[in-house]
Amino acid sequence: QVQLVESGGGVVQAGGSLRLSCAASGLTFSSYAMVWFRQAPGKEREFVSAITWNGGSTYYADSIKGRFTISRDNAKNTLYLQMNSLKPEDTAVYYCAARRVFLYNDYTNKNLYTTWGQGTQVTVSS
Fold first, then answer.
1. Alpha-carbon dihedral of residues 33, 81, 38, 8, nearest 10 degrees?
2. Distance CA 44, CA 92 (A)
3. pLDDT per residue over 19-57, tens digit each?
4. For residues 49 and 118, is the Cβ–Cβ distance under 8 A?
């Protein structure tokens, strides 16, 4: 079955960096658009970034634009999120998700993704 496994989270000081990974199995990874969402305690899960099947197009939430970079390696079936200049407000559980058809008009809608990883905790201390 389809499985997404996130890793790379941890505790970092403000201004630091982390690189998250999402290893995919059970699907033809190169045919799927991939996204990152995050969920802070007591808050809704929110869109962070998306990348099309071949990496040709990337999308970012305004709150992380210029600090985070999404990328993928289709040969390794792995999605990445490089996070720089981290802020305490970036503290959350980060999830990756996959979708066979990328919805250019609605890719920030969490309800449209049915395949999720278990999440990885990112904590940024001030």
1. 120
2. 11
3. 999 999 999 999 999 999 999 999 999 999 999 999 999
4. no
Residue 6, amino acid: E
CA–CA gap between residue 1 and residue 17 (Å, rounded): 32
Dihedral sign, Cα of residue 88, residue 86, residue 99, residue 21: negative
The number of beta carbons lying within 10 Å of the beta carbon of residue 64 is 23
Question: What residue spans of 42-119 are helical by DSSP H?
Answer: none
| Amino acid identity for residue 92 in this structure | A
Residue 102: which residues within 8 A CB-CB, separation 6 or more?
A: 33, 50, 52, 53
pLDDT value, residue 104: 87
Cα–Cα distance for residue pair 60/43, rounded to 1 Å: 19
Predicted confidence at residue 97, as pLDDT, reads 97
Give the Å distances, CA to CA, from 100 to 69, 92, 105, 118: 21, 26, 15, 19
Q: Are 112 and 33 in contact (CB under 8 A)?
A: no
